[in-house]
Amino acid sequence: MKVLVLNCGSSSVKYQFIDTDKKLALAKGLVDRIGMAGAVLSHQRYDGDQIKISGEILDHQIAIEYVLAVLLSKNHGVIDDKKDIEAVGHRVVHGGETFSGSVLITDEVIKALQDNIELAPLHNPPNIKGIQAATRILPGTPQVGVFDTAFHSHMPPKAYLYGIPYELYRKYKIRRYGFHGTSHLYVSKRAAELMGRKYEELKIITAHLGNGCSMAAVDRGVSVDTTMGFTPLEGLLMGTRSGDLDPQVILYIMGKEGLSLNEAATMLNKHSGLIGISGESSDMREILAAVKDQHQRAKHAFDIFCYRIKKYVGAYAAAMGGVDALVFTGGIGENSYEVREEVCRDMEFMGIHLDQLRNQNKEELISSDSSKVKVFRIPTNEELVIAMDTAEIVSSSN
What we know:
- The chain is α/β, with parallel strands linked by helices and 398 residues long.
- The chain folds into two domains: 2-147, 2-Layer Sandwich (Nucleotidyltransferase, domain 5), CATH 3.30.420; 198-377, Nucleotidyltransferase, domain 5.
- It is 40% helix and 19% strand.
- It contains 15 helices and 13 strands.
- The chain has an eight-stranded mixed β-sheet with strand order 5-4-3-2-1-6-8-7, with helices on both faces.
- Strand 10 (213-219) and strand 11 form a beta hairpin.
- Helix 6 packs across helix 15 and helix 10 packs across helix 11 (296-320).
- The protein is globular, with a radius of gyration of 21 Å.
- The two termini are 13 Å apart.
């Protein structure tokens, strides 16, 4: 099946057109700066052909029309007719407690997504806009929603409930949801393939490290815990997010600085993390360059970043009663050998032995042959997960 995968942000649309039988992205690209001056579509075909198109792209519907136009282009496209798009798969950030798996989009599903906007006010609205635009542009083409939260929806109550009055959970659905689910699912399954073992018999810790970071404990194919929580703010130190924090610190700062709720949220989400500690950058590459220049705050940021990952490796191994594999993915996880090396340093006591040469050469298996716990560097492919889910749901509904 040929599936168009859409990931709609507030001012962008990322897309891939995937042949699920071949597991091949025939084309991919990004429409950026929607609704702003200088909007542009960047498109790349599987054979390397590339093009950039500037235009007045005022909303998501026009953006998706641009995507279809370039996919149909004689010079740069990969299809002859709209009907060649057999289904559309949408990345949807938050499914709340409503969705524990991917679903065929219906009016009832749209209503449920709108009901969950309060849980993801920055992400669900553009996701919904993308679904509605694609439905108008491709009438009759089945649409499927694939949720970032779904992979974590089977966590036990001991992992997802917070230590707050239970009535607040019942009233407002305040609980751990977790995010990056499609990434954690893909790389944990890929690790099992590389090990030549059944997914359902392995205990795997996955670390998705990018500007946003999260880890998951995947026990025999089920995510039993994850670091992000009610929002993507909890857990690891991130590019601009604080991660784990004593809640009283927030109240204390708000009182001292006279911050409003919105100002406090902006501080924690946009001005904390790597950039907040280092004062240099939210980009790990720039942090590492500053560390080499003996910048002490950058060194603090790097050390805290790696230390928190290391702590969660130990915690999740304890939670699962052992670990068979540790997987690094995401922009930092895939590209920073320094982070992988620091996280795995002095972890031999629990069976983690990194092979320095493999790690620096960016191989998939980066642990030594004698390592009891296999350590992997696996590029994620969330779009393929979305496409495969979409194909499966559409096929089963026919």
